[in-house]
């Protein structure tokens, strides 16, 4: 039976269009179960009825569509109960409905299974037989399993507008993605594909390794020059820190591991193209299995770089783009280099089938002020090329060929968005202070070493979170103390005079280092963060020593310990930090001008257990920092990277809000400063709730600084208490968001949570 099920699913997925897919399914299900009829009904929630979409066995005596009203018949009963109905003689069932123009009197047995996708009934799959009998449990399980498979097919068709009624316009259904850069854009879709694809390389052997290595090195050199040209073309068009994205590409090419492994694979008897494919795909897999979203998105950069080197290996000519004016860039995976290659004046929006808000393409889009929606998996590139798109970067919505009234509404919202953006920029030099005098410190979350003068340009207090993982991920060995010192020195010097919170190495378990293999059944709850580094003091001490050496004469280093669960972990980490401090002080014998200051030590609150242990560690540390991303994940027992349960991940969950309120209350009692460095602080509604709780130190990505500052300056902290109480009393994240949105609307700040304002 399993083999039959797989064959049917494969046939449905390979069908060239939706109607044929449904017809294929009903025919093959009828044959597989040796039944007399199989029918698919699709739910039309606007018209409150089910439409007969495909059948093999029912006799239809009309050219008009056949409908079953909601609430009537066995079909509606199965849908409302959300469970299969197995009826030996359906015609005698009290819910049985005789449909006009449908001949089914000869059928007795009926099995109806609802088709459900993400808790929403999309239709019903029904099989019927002349013989009066109950279907077996195996048959029932077979139909229920097929209904679950059919749900995905129908959901994709619904997103494409293929389920529309005669009154609806094509593509009127909103295509959902992830909002990656705020704003609204309307324009023609311009589809771009990579210059070459490693996935299309067929592995081949070679007995001329010297020739292949020369070809590989030449391709790397041409790629390096190409990236330099692209980077130079962007100067003056985007912020300087955005150009540092290209430094990551150069660092990957400079990485001994990439070139060395490719050449080693060539020496093992493979062609250069094959060797590049094997090495890059292995590195991509390593990145894609990470938990840290920012670092995981580096997989896109590695894949992009590999495709570019491959294009030069294949001697492809440089591409010349000719995009239409005011167009929307659409690609399977938009990359930073792809965006930079295109004429800036022509690209007004971006849609990517893959990626998240932490991808370099998203970072560049925000820097360029281009609305972006990523993770859109319900469209085909060839279907949207040349079509009119609306990109709503606030809600993650994409419309294809929208009705005129929808387009006109969004054009008005786009004008309002532009006016709002210009107003927000005007407040950059002003303090983040509420109308009733409550001052808030805004800090940066930094993941790249940049050269921009952030302190003056964005008017921030300092760095609330600096990730140190990338140098460890991009090598085939641990970075030396000198290599780490050089990197940390650049960051501390860049923010001289302002605090820089450096998080110690946060890898392990779900974020393995390529040279430190880890195999765990449940990595999300495993050997990671401080747990790993305490088990490897030789790694931890070297990193701390490098940070301390880099801080000589600057006195702006703060050290943050991740994934803390117990007081014992803090005791041991602090002991080793003190040990490293005394070692470095003795070695350097710092003069008065180059004094080595003992850094402040902080702990991340991201494991719920620590909330109840704050009093046990408060005397050992100087500050706390709340990582709302992981705290939410662990509070709700939801892997936010798992698409099946990602909808349950929501930092606005009332339980998470109660935990945050308890954290600030405990920190106040302990007289310990606390900041929030998770994504919630950069959300307009999240910032309001945190402000109402009593948090006064927020850290976020650069593109949120101006928006959050404006919101803080146009709201009274005293007015937020009622909003907070309603949020804490709410039953769901959706109810919380309704209260927050209402508060923003009442304050005239609705434009920050929707297009326009």
From TrEMBL:
<dbReference type="InterPro" id="IPR008731">
    <property type="entry name" value="PTS_EIN"/>
</dbReference>
<dbReference type="InterPro" id="IPR040442">
    <property type="entry name" value="Pyrv_kinase-like_dom_sf"/>
</dbReference>
<keyword id="KW-0418">Kinase</keyword>
<keyword id="KW-0762">Sugar transport</keyword>
<protein>
    <recommendedName>
        <fullName>phosphoenolpyruvate--protein phosphotransferase</fullName>
        <ecNumber>2.7.3.9</ecNumber>
    </recommendedName>
</protein>
<keyword id="KW-0460">Magnesium</keyword>
<keyword id="KW-0963">Cytoplasm</keyword>
<dbReference type="GO" id="GO:0005737">
    <property type="term" value="C:cytoplasm"/>
</dbReference>
<dbReference type="InterPro" id="IPR006318">
    <property type="entry name" value="PTS_EI-like"/>
</dbReference>
<dbReference type="InterPro" id="IPR036618">
    <property type="entry name" value="PtsI_HPr-bd_sf"/>
</dbReference>
<dbReference type="GO" id="GO:0008965">
    <property type="term" value="F:phosphoenolpyruvate-protein phosphotransferase activity"/>
</dbReference>
<dbReference type="Pfam" id="PF01590">
    <property type="entry name" value="GAF"/>
</dbReference>
<keyword id="KW-0813">Transport</keyword>
<dbReference type="InterPro" id="IPR000121">
    <property type="entry name" value="PEP_util_C"/>
</dbReference>
<dbReference type="Pfam" id="PF00391">
    <property type="entry name" value="PEP-utilizers"/>
</dbReference>
<dbReference type="GO" id="GO:0046872">
    <property type="term" value="F:metal ion binding"/>
</dbReference>
<comment type="similarity">
    <text>Belongs to the PEP-utilizing enzyme family.</text>
</comment>
<feature type="domain" description="GAF">
    <location>
        <begin position="17"/>
        <end position="164"/>
    </location>
</feature>
<dbReference type="InterPro" id="IPR036637">
    <property type="entry name" value="Phosphohistidine_dom_sf"/>
</dbReference>
<dbReference type="GO" id="GO:0009401">
    <property type="term" value="P:phosphoenolpyruvate-dependent sugar phosphotransferase system"/>
</dbReference>
<dbReference type="InterPro" id="IPR050499">
    <property type="entry name" value="PEP-utilizing_PTS_enzyme"/>
</dbReference>
<keyword id="KW-0808">Transferase</keyword>
<dbReference type="Pfam" id="PF05524">
    <property type="entry name" value="PEP-utilisers_N"/>
</dbReference>
<dbReference type="InterPro" id="IPR029016">
    <property type="entry name" value="GAF-like_dom_sf"/>
</dbReference>
<dbReference type="InterPro" id="IPR015813">
    <property type="entry name" value="Pyrv/PenolPyrv_kinase-like_dom"/>
</dbReference>
<dbReference type="InterPro" id="IPR003018">
    <property type="entry name" value="GAF"/>
</dbReference>
<dbReference type="Pfam" id="PF02896">
    <property type="entry name" value="PEP-utilizers_C"/>
</dbReference>
<dbReference type="InterPro" id="IPR008279">
    <property type="entry name" value="PEP-util_enz_mobile_dom"/>
</dbReference>
<keyword id="KW-0598">Phosphotransferase system</keyword>
<keyword id="KW-0479">Metal-binding</keyword>
<dbReference type="GO" id="GO:0016301">
    <property type="term" value="F:kinase activity"/>
</dbReference>
